[in-house]
Protein 1
Amino acid sequence: MSIPTAVPPAAAPLTGLPPTAGPAAATVRVDLGRRGYDILIGPDLIAGAGQAIAERLPGRPLVVLTDATVADLHLPALMTSLTASGAPVLEPVVVPAGEASKEMGRLAAVMDALLARGLERRTVLVALGGGVVGDLGGFAAAIALRGIDFVQVPTTLLSQVDSSVGGKTGVNSAHGKNLIGAFHQPRLVLADTRTLDTLPRREVLAGYAEVVKYGLIDNPGFFDWLEANGPALIAGDAAARAEAIRVSCEAKAAIVAKDETESGLRELLNLGHTFGHALEAEAGYGGAVLHGEAVAIGMVMAFDLSVRMGLCPAADAERLRSHLAAVGLPTSAAHPGRGGWTAEALLAHMAKDKKVRQGRVTFILARGIGRAFRSADVDVADVAAVLAASLRG
């Protein structure tokens, strides 16, 4: 693949990958047989959401779940589109913005609100927002009346490339992130790239960390492409954003189709997350550390651990660290205001990770960029050393 020496004004599609469906939208299929669904990627999809949903779920009552910030930005356009489709539309449910809404108390409040609106089994829940709303809404749909259909309308880069796809839903616990939840696949994902224009730079960067992950797992060519086009993507280049979302969704869809419930292969998508979730838990889910920031730090630690174990060239770990730092993502757990964090405390959080089997944590390690693999054969002393080094910066 030819790598540009400078960031172009509009990113070209990745060499060797199928082109998008056109300038307006691309479609990625999640192939799960009768439960399969489309991911539509492009601008102004919220304006066409009513029609897109009606084509797949005609005549069904609809109810929107969103958060207060997204409601101000995008709810009026979505409600107009849904109403114009002719479907019955219930009063939307709005929760406070932020990770703190992803907890059991808020879930109970959402369920009460949905039931008070006259929810029935034909009702479709439309989750409009970032990863918090998508996870919370998907879990509510999974348990409401023992399961109703839902549609994801992700409005952040992180949710468009990761959390809206694959059916992982859930809430956090005092014991750790996403420990309470269910696998419940959406019926449709509408990734409106225009919503990314409303995001603060910090949120775009947080989503970008998840984009980088796909290059590190098994697509070194994509990582090459990101090194050339990542700055433009973050700065707002619409073509670069759409291309990165498409490639990320295709990568995740392929893995989910082979391992829907994370019994093996899908664990690769957790590269950096075992470390990252521990950082989020220690930070208290209050916004001091965003999920994507924690994942960025966690991916660096996963590569550093791989280097320490003699599995990965040090140059690849440095290449990852350099790219993340160049675009503005954190690469270590050292940060003003995080005094008091210890390797021991982070290890305690990691011991509650969802990938623990028979008391051992399964780590996602790497033999190099694009060569991730799973391993439960990791010495805790090596993990502690990597944590300590990251805390020192």
Protein 2
Amino acid sequence: MNPLNEILIYGDIGFEVQAKDIVAQLNECEGPINVRVDSFGGDVYAGISILNALRRYPDVVTVYVDGMAASAASFIAVGGADRLIMSPNSSLLIHGAWSQGMGNSEEMAQLASDLNQITDNLATIYAEKTGQEPAYWRELMKKDTTFTAEQAVEAGLADAVAEFEKSAKAEKRHAVMASGRSRFAKHAGGRGVPDIETRAAAPPLSVTRSESGDNTTMPSDGQEGDAMSIKNLAQELGVHPDVLREKLSGFFNEEVTVTATVDLTYPEGTTVVPTGEVQVAPNEDVPAGVTFELSNTPEGWTGEIAEDTGALKVTAPANVEPDTEVQFTVAVNGGSGEPVELTVPVTVKAAANTEEETTQETAPETSAPAEDTITLDAETYAELKAAAQHGWKAMEQQKEASLVAEVDGWIKEGRISAARRTKAIAAMKRDAEAARDIYGSNPAGTIPRAEIGYGKDTEPDEAKTVRAKADKVGFLTRKNFH
């Protein structure tokens, strides 16, 4: 099974991305899927195969254009998605089918006819999504036409532009980097040499409990004859020692009050049953850059702690007595100074007696039936039961018929195409509200009601063979070249 239900179409269609591989991945998925696209296109028929595989998938298909969806990748994204989402700064490019060939004038004329027919077919995919006539898209496909994420939505090719979302790890990384840049800006007054005015104003870097008192450190001025003493340095600079000391107090940490930069606590009332597990997390949000380490575990117990979040998993031993109280110790380190130790108290509670909780009193066998009780013979009861089951089945059939009628109404009103009927019905049976939001919410008249067709195929079957890989990625026809 595919646990993520996510399929990547990254690379050239028909070469790096094979239709059979996409089908195999779809067969491993259950439920709604996400398809992520970043491709400059490729073989047109491989693209059609992937498009139809996505359309056949029984659940909702959401396609995200991560970078570029060009050429064959564009009609896969537009036609294969129940919902197409453009990522910020992504693009979508369309153009007419093209190929390479050689031969006499008749063969070149046939190739031109084939390309026109393929381009007409592709134009219907964009038309079906947007409600615009195929001729409109046929005109745009005469040359490479690129849509930004916003323009794709305006044209009806895509449904929305996704908001940029950072992962939790990215958020933490950016917060740490911003903190580092901030510290550097405060502490660095020049290239390689800290500025005295700026450095003196820098805050102390430490991690303490919020209830810790004021602590000060008082380094000495150095020995009288030490060339690096405050007095000697003041003499060299031509300033009074007290003035220099004031300027450098922040730089040398000469007199700095240790402030509370981390204020974290754990719950006081955590309980666990023998052999059971319990998760204990800090009550407050963990600042960026803070790390956790389990420094003490009671005998017989086990504990695991997440280094970045401080979430502690506690497991009680099997022989522990109820009401036993233990304490785990967690060391919190902010990257400066001594780690702060926090206690996590845990109390053992008795396991619930499920037999006593679920025991119910039953009436004696000799008790008389209540006044509102009706006694039936077995045959009558069986008939009533069968009738109830028949009524339930009829009700379910009526409900299903109502859902199907609603989908057919969408098709009649031009909200979805007839090609989406089976998938829309299946979606209605799973979750009617979600299906109405995806399919039924389209404006009436979005899809032209008239069937779109482009004549019959006059090309002989023997001419429709797989062509060799082209020198350039684009829409390709499968023909033999002589």
Protein 3
Amino acid sequence: MPKLCLDDRAIISVSGTDAGTLLQSLVTTDIGALAEDEVRPGALLTPQGKIFFDFLISRDGEALRLETSLDQVEALLKRLTMYKLRSAVELSLLTPAPVAVVFGEEDRPEGSYRDHRFERAGLPVFRLYHAIADAEASIADYDRLRIAAGIAVVNRDYALQDAFPHDVLMDLNGGLSFRKGCYVGQEVVSRMQHRGTARRRVVIVSGEAPLPPTGTSLTINGRPIGALGTVQDKAALAIVRIDKAGEAIAKSDPILAGDVPVTLTLPGWTGLAFPAEADEASA
């Protein structure tokens, strides 16, 4: 199985008798639904419902493990410390914090955690939290897999405090609960869900030629609808206004990344459709 060691990750351990209760009241993930052998996405939101910090959460014995990016970890730890007050919770930054990804085969590595995001996309991908040998895969291999699955990551595909959970498909990949009690930003994302107002979504971009760099605007008749995120040759991820994209697709108007004509596809596992296409199909 291809294996990849990630060197840009950090881990916060959340332990103590109130650990689950504290996180359940703060983050988007339903802690009660988190299985022992899986890792799920999650976020701590701003009061306005945008992603303040993002992470992957899993169980580590009696504790909970938050895997996040190195550039977020200190600020996230400080924020959690502010929220815990007098709760029976201990927060600790684990060092070293080895994180590995294993993908490509059905055989599950011992001691691994199923990555719920890829599982929803029908792909067997596992995370390990210990050092491994013979890690022969590259970040490029992992990026190709993420693009095919429509899995966006912070700093590559979106910026913190600039995206709602719906924008990055957290409402569909197990990272956003609408059934548990209140948490920071919950009112905003629940309103988006019930009113169906989410219009920015992750799409898979296919170019007729190699695509320009990350950050290049996607345009319709000169008007931007989003920007390229992770790019791999002729394939990329982007977060776009799917209502505008749907109108262009229905009218056969060209969509461009820079000057490269592209096709946009919503990840098949999501069940989503471009609004104009869905309206046309139901007519």
Protein 4
Amino acid sequence: MTHAAAPAGLPFMKMHGAGNDFVVIDSRGREAVTTPALARALGDRNRGVGFDQLAEIRDATEADFALDFWNSDGSRAGACGNATRCVCDHVMRGLGKAEVTLRTARGILRAERLADGRVNVNMGHPQRLWSDIPLAREVDVMHLPLPGDPVAVGMGNPHCVIFVPDAKTVDLRALGPVYEADPLYPQRTNVEFASVTGPDRLRMRVWERGTGVTLACGSGACATAVAAHLRGLTGRRVALDLDGGTLEVDWREDGVWMTGPVAHVFDGVLTPGFLAALT
């Protein structure tokens, strides 16, 4: 791996949305720099910076910017809703705008800042066909042949949503890896455990593929809200209480909108020595 900016190091930002934390690298105006090796090294919370996902901002001709996502194990992620909201807030502030468009693997998305400072992003339409999620074979996506009677939903990432009496009591570290690696999901899956706590309100906890237990997951919140509505448990607008905070999801005609808090924690620079060790 080569770094044209190695003599001066590589700048990055640390952000989080409802405790779901990210390293963000701004590569506008230059070649993309993230590789699996860099993502793994940065994702190490003892020897790197630590994150749930890495987001790299890139130039786009058909939108204000583009975003690529990586997991801490070096694998690619197709979507990351909380990182999207955080980066959109950063770009909006830089452009002096309250609304932006961005390109991800999900296509062209739109985000806006609300009066209370939270950011609302359209995460696109849910993927509900077994082949689009994707699953390994044709099954009833509303009732997967797995323990707990899960629902399969795609939101750029595959999701396995399991409704339980009390999500707070679920042993995520024991059960999450089992579902993540089930052969029914050829690309592995995020795993959400959710329980109904009130009218149009859910308690949700998540195991993310390639990362593990996280305090929140934006695409997972969207998938869980879609699954809950399809199961008749909630309406199309849902509040989800996660370990790191509350997200709101509104499944509209133009896509699944997700709203929540954003935080820009600090800026840093990766040293030339850290980068050189990856070559």
